Each structure stands twice: as C-alpha cells, then as structure tokens.
Amino acid sequence: MTNLAYRLLPLLLPLALLRPLPALADNAFVTDAEAPTPSSVREGTRWQERATPPPPWPEESDLIEFELDRPHAGFRYFIDGRHLQIGDDGVVRYTLVAQAPSGARNLSFEGLRCTPRGTYKSYAYGAAGRFVLLDDPQWLPIDDHDHERFRKALWRHHFCVPRGFAPRPRKDMIRSLQGRIAPLQNSGFLTD
C-alpha cells in the first residue's frame, strides 16, 4: 500500500460502515415490526359479565356469620347462605350484612371475582326491606384497608380456591363461612 492509501484509510473506513450489509438487508426478522405468531395461537374469548337481578331480602335464619382474622371495631358480618351463588360468568354473588355494635345493619348485594388480587362490585344496597340498584357499578380492586377487610377475608378464605383463581364449590363456601374448614385448608397448603 502506498503512503497515500494509509492516509485515506481513516477517512474511507467510516464511509464503508455506513453502507448496509447485504446479510442484514435480506434478514426478515430485522425489518419486521412485529414477530410472527405461531398458527397454534388462538385469540381467547373475552370475559362477559352476566346480568343478575338482586336476590330476595334475606331471612334471619339464612344468615351465616363469619369471623375476621382480627376484630373489626365491633362489627359483625353475615352472608345470606341461601342466596349465595356462582354465576356462569365465574362471579360469586352474595348478600352481605354488616351489623354495627348498636345493632344497626347495612345490607349490600355484591359480586366478587377470584382474580389474582381479587375484585368486587356492589350492585345494590338494602333499604326499607328491598334492594336499590346502583346506576353504574364498577369492578374495584379489593384493598387491604381496614374498612374492607371483610372482602379480603371472603376472597382469601371463603369464596376462592387458594392460588387457583376460581370460585370454590358452593358447598365448600358454606362450610368455610360456618368455620367447618380448618385454617390450613383455606391457605392453599396441605394439612398435617
């Protein structure tokens, strides 16, 4: 190589790198905006909630009291066992009765989904012996706040299969609410 070639080499090398390489230009994976999907992958069906009317007003004899892990400011919580249901859409629908220490009661008709963190929806509130439907109820996450600990307990211990993200059979829900399922059976771990 001549002396001139050695001097021009640093100038020509960057220009050579700017030119596209033939192997990269023919590679389909480099220029695709989205990776191809295998033919075995199918679009899933979207979850659809089923419209459900509120149940009848609960009878006192149908109420099942359930316990929380820690006391909750003297409130007592009950589920109407007769009208507890699992819909075709996988939603557990129930009437909740929250009784204050004074004896005053709040009733609500709610739905709970056994998603990984749990969601709930309040469909109606009880007033004067009947349910009043809410205008546009929305699914909300179950929080760890003290005022929602009863929903967390229903999701974690009574209504959903531990780590299964599906509703338990209705008879197991009733047994769990009545305290007839051992705590370890509710945790997802095997009992001794």
What does this structure look like?
This protein is 25% helix and 22% strand. The N and C termini lie far apart (84 Å). It is α+β, with helices and mostly antiparallel strands. It has a domain at 60-183.
Provide key terms for this protein.
alpha+beta; CNP1-like uncharacterized domain-containing protein; 25% helix; 22% strand; single chain; 192 residues
Average per-residue pLDDT, rounded, comes to: 83
- What low-confidence regions span 5 or more consecutive residues with pLDDT below 50? none
Number of strands: 8
- Please summarize the sheet with the most strands: 8 strands, antiparallel
Question: Hey, roughly how much beta strand do the residues contain?
Answer: 15-25%
Structural class: alpha+beta
Question: How much helicity do the residues have?
Answer: 25-40%
Our count of helices gives: 6
| Topology pattern, helix = H, strand = E | HHHEEEEEEEEHHH
Distance between the termini: 84 Å
In terms of quaternary structure, what is this? Answer: single chain
Over the alpha carbons, how many angstroms does the gyration radius reach? 30 Å
Instruction: Note the overall shape.
Output: elongated
Domain CNP1-like uncharacterised: 43-178
Protein name: CNP1-like uncharacterized domain-containing protein
Region (Disordered): 34-60
Signal peptide: 1-25
